[in-house]
Amino acid sequence: MMEEVKETASVLSVHDDSIKVTEVLKDGDTLTFIIVSQKLSGTGEYHVDRTYEDFEWLQQHLFSQGDVPGIQGVIFPPLPAKPQVNASPRSIKQLGFLALGECQPYCKALETFLQQVAAHSILSKNKAVEVFLTSSDPPGRQKVKKNIFNRLSQAVEEMRKEGHKDVDEFFQNERDHNLVLTGCTKTAAEKFLDVVATEQKIAVACGHFSTALHLCVEPGEDPDKQAFSRVCVKLSEVFESIKKNMTSVAENNVNTLGLGLDLESRYQEAEREMLFRRTCKLVELENAQRNVEKAKPVKKAAMEEVKKAAETEFEHTSGVAKQEVKSTINNCIPHFHVSFHSGLVC
Q1: What global pTM score does this model have?
Q2: Cα distance between residue 218 and residue 234, in whole Å
């Protein structure tokens, strides 16, 4: 069991865009995902099986890279919430589109997470990524520890920092933009989920009505009954066609715009947390500067060192953060061909 992974620079031995989550196996309440990736050498494929706890293991190693300069400026690819074998209304609300369509949308979301991690210039160097994608042995099972990356923006004692004025106009504008976009994207995803749910209900209702019409067919030689039966059969065929079309429409909408909105919504949250982490570093730097100004001569040198360290960390974080923000648009939605279909075809 590989519970400990040395955090050293690593070059992945797989093509990031070849990573696929091809299948999910159910064993009681446990879901196991089959992950396939092409070897960089071109000599074959890696096939590994991973549980959700393994994904959490990987995410924990990505979060725990405090010695990597600027790591707090990274927008970490968002890992979907844990899936449920028997989805409850609460889990469906939490997972949204990922709870629909058996497990295909959820597998696609995990696949996108892995591809984005493997394609990231900083995160892909973590040895844990190589181990996760290529080792036949499962990563170690350990309890996920809380750290600075576990949804900092929800820490009550830090909430006041979210409204702290930024010294950099670029980041202040991005924070304002992110605040608006996070709300809009979440609302759009919720509304579109309602649309898809309605399409699925229409498909089910049409299927039931098609079956009911078949029950109206009566045997016998009576011309009126024969005519009525023919009408029922034709109508049944029409509603069966509507059912198949609406099922296809709903499935297409989940796999295109639905998954796109879900990913965008989770990515906006991830960016929000990154911007908050950077704001915390800004506050730390400003506090260090004030401490230097107030320090007595005997402590001034020590305070200067603290300030210098805070300044260096803030500059590294801001440098990485600016690159991340500029590349977010290109890295987020391209995995899905976004389209929306609605209507009936008989």
Answers
A1: 0.82
A2: 14
